[in-house]
Amino acid sequence: MSPVRLVIFGRQGSGKGTQCARLVEAFGPVHISTGDMLRAAVAEGTEFGRRAQKVMDAGDLVSDEIINGIVAERLALPDVVQNGFLLDGFPRTPAQATALNALLEEAETSLDLAINLDVSIEVVTERMVTRGRADDSPEGIAQRLSLYEQETAPLFSLFADQGILKIVDGDGTEDEVAARLAHVVTESQGNKQ
Question: Of the residues 5, 16, 51, 166, which is catalytic?
Fold first, then answer.
């Protein structure tokens, strides 16, 4: 089976982290979380890592240019080239999605699938309230979910236009959701042959 190249979206509380681990186990891509990647680039002192560190030390948000650079550095590494990737937390904006497509085109490859792990706002809110983290106040949850909708919704139409967006029902047991995800990924792999 050829390496899979996936992007996964999902509201906070959708179970995305758990399902990413299941997808890695089933299909073997390298799970690339933007937060982990940023921390690794800073720790390794890569060019973009050093630039990101300066911005974060100043208390500012890291720009698309720096995030795109860090992603480009990570996607070029041998483990990703050999095993494929599962991007989690990137792209977050249309500009990042455009940069990702350009980067993959340059590498003479493309995304296989953009998955939206869809769990209703009511369900994810209930899950987050139940887990009881300090920042999971009703107002905090509503603010994060609203921001997610504003930032991410435009990406769905972008990937739908490319014919690679799959919406997967994220409600149900871990196993049920994992089976739905495995089905869409297997289907996309079959279409690649």
Answer: 16
